[in-house]
């Protein structure tokens, strides 16, 4: 599964917004400038995310866009669903629109549903606040203590 570029841009924009004040309203030109994304793409995403209830829009001199809910209440699943639709790795899902001509006789029919559900559940556990929180560039390396950044001795992990 690979998210499309606009979804990636959407996450970048939402993370930028989540780093600000909950009540902050920001404009499309501002977001385009600070994220280095094209203004037309930013504008399109802001409108779409507003239609999907992730963002709220306010007109006027102090208008702009803001998060519709706290960043802790918006999940990666919410964002992906808003920008990509339901999580479906294949066309042949139960209740789908029949995207495969072999669907009726396929031995895998229905077996993708648990995979789709597992991905959706995993994305539901990650909040926008978590995604927006800066991380150490080395926090993915085992043997580095997240608190002090120093290697741990004899932790049983081989390089």
Strand content: 5-15%
Structural class: mainly alpha
Strand order of the largest sheet: 1-2
Largest β-sheet summary: 2 strands, antiparallel
Beta-strand segment tally: 2
Q: Which percent bin holds the helix content? A: 25-40%
SSE topology:
Elements: H1 5-18, H2 28-35, H3 39-51, E1 55-58, E2 64-67, H4 76-84, H5 112-124, H6 128-132
Helix pairs in contact: 1-2, 1-3, 1-4, 2-3
Observed structural traits:
159 residues, mainly alpha, two-stranded antiparallel sheet, 6 helices, 2 strands, 39% helix, disordered C terminus
Describe this structure in words.
The structure is a single chain. The protein has 159 residues and is mainly alpha-helical. 39% of the residues lie in helices and 5% in strands. The protein has helices spanning 5-18, 28-35, 39-51, 76-84, 112-124, 128-132; strands at 55-58, 64-67. The chain has a two-stranded antiparallel sheet.
Could you give a quick summary of the protein structure above?
By secondary structure, the protein is mostly helical. The chain has helices at residues 5-18, 28-35, 39-51, 76-84, 112-124, 128-132; strands at residues 55-58, 64-67.
């Amino acid at each position: 599964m690979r998210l499309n570029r606009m979804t990636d841009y959407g996450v970048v924009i939402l993370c930028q917004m989540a780093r600000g004040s909950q009540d902050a309203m920001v404009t499309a030109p501002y977001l385009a400038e600070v994220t280095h994304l094209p203004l037309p793409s930013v504008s399109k995403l802001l409108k779409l995310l507003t239609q999907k209830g992730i963002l709220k829009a306010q007109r006027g001199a102090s208008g702009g866009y803001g998060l519709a809910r706290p960043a802790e209440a918006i999940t990666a699943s919410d964002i992906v669903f808003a920008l990509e639709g339901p999580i479906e790795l294949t066309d042949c899902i139960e209740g789908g629109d029949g995207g495969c001509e072999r669907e009726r006789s396929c031995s895998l029919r229905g077996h993708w549903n648990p995979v789709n559900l597992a991905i959706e559940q995993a994305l539901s556990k990650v909040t926008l606040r978590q995604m927006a929180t800066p991380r150490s560039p080395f926090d993915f390396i085992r043997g580095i203590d997240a608190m002090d950044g120093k290697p741990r001795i004899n932790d049983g992990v081989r390089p």
